[in-house]
Structure formats: structure tokens, C-alpha cells
Amino acid sequence: MAKSSSNRQSSKSTQPGSIGRTGGEAKKPTAAIILLIVGGLVVFVGGLLSAFGYYGIQSIISNPGAYATELARYNLTLNSTVMSVMSAEIPLLVLSAIVGIIVGIALLIDGIMVMKRPGMTRNLGIIAIVFSVISLASNYGGFIIGFILSIIGGILAFRFKE
Questions:
Q1: 16 — phi, psi (to 5°)?
Q2: Is residue 135 a contact partner of residue 107, using CB atoms and an 8 Å limit?
Q3: Spatial separation of the C-alpha atoms in residues 5 and 120, rounded to whole Å
Q4: Contact indicator for 20, 128 with CB cutoff of 8 Å
Q5: Count of other CB atoms within 10 angstroms of residue 105
Q6: Residue 146 near residue 40, CB atoms below 8 Å
Q7: What share of the chain is helix, strand, coil (3-state, %, to 5)?
Q8: Which of 48, 70, 81, 160 has the CB geometry, 3.0–4.6 Å to 121, for a possible disulfide?
């Protein structure tokens, strides 16, 4: 009789609703989490690089004399046409940098949320896919690599079943 009571106790601890490592932990979409976090980091770094590119061009425009020798080496001239084209591209670089930084942070947060709340993976997967598509406005989604990683992570999160 002692054996039957110990068998009942061990079967209770492995039931799905029990507390502990044997059956109480929810499954997590590990691949989706990793892909979303890494993809978000790549998009974020791409946004930062766009921001540094903006400041590099801004310094060329503000001090063209310092770069005249370098530009002459490549047979370029500092005339009004080149300056107007460069100044027209600056708002695009700023927008690219802002989009990259914001979307990269959003994808990082999305990956963390998928890890913390595995029950919401379907909704978080949709959000990740939307932010991945938006990331294309920022240096092609983190040099395309961030876009690919985060879109695959979003699809995996969307399709995850507990």
C-alpha cells in the first residue's frame, strides 16, 4: 500500500498544472526570441551607423575646405549643385537613423516580451513582422540581415504553439 501512495504522489508532481521543473513551466519559442533580439540589435546598430553617417556629412558641409583636397583626389568639385544634393540627403539620413534606432529598440523589446510572456506570442509575432517591414526604411532593415532575422523570428513567434 505504501507503493501505491508514493506512485500517486509522483504522478501528481508531473501534471501540467503542478509547480516545479517537471511540468509547470511554459514552453518558450527560443529560436524566435534569439532571432528577434539579434535582428533588433542589427537594426539598432544600423540606425546608429546612419546617425554617424549624418554627422559625417554634416561636418563636410559645415567645413568644406578641410575636405577639398580629398574631394579633388576623386575628381569632384565643390560647387552649388553638389552642396544642394548633399543638403537634400541629410533629412533622409536623419529619418533613416531615427527609424533604425526606434525600430531596433522595438524589436528588442518585442523579443524580450516573447520571452517573458509566451502566451502572447501570436500577437507579439504580428508586431515583430510589422516592425521588421518598417525597418526597411532604415538602411534596408539593418543591412537586410536585421530584417531577415527579425521577420523569421516574428513568423516563428506567430506560429508558436504551447
A1: -60, -30
A2: yes
A3: 38
A4: no
A5: 16
A6: yes
A7: 80, 0, 20
A8: 160
pLDDT beyond 90 at 13: no
- pLDDT tens by residue, 34-92: 999 999 999 999 888 887 776 655 555 565 555 455 444 444 444 444 455 455 556 77
In angstroms, the CA 66 to CA 52 distance is 18
Q: Where are the beta strands (DSSP E) in the chain?
A: none
φ/ψ (deg, to 5) at 131: -65, -30
pLDDT tens string 94-146:
888 889 999 999 999 999 999 999 899 999 999 999 999 999 988 778 889 99
Helix (H) or strand (E) holding 64: helix 64-73
Question: Which residue's C-alpha cell is 526597411?
Answer: 136
pTM metric for this prediction: 0.67
Q: How far, in Å, CA of 60 to CA of 63, rounded?
A: 5
Q: Where are the chain's structural domains?
A: 29-50+91-159
Is there a contact between 46 and 104 (Cβ–Cβ < 8 Å)? yes
- The grid coordinates of residue 7 equal 506512485
- Give the orientation angle of helix 64-73 with respect to helix 30-62, to 10 degrees: 100
Mean pLDDT estimate for the chain: 76
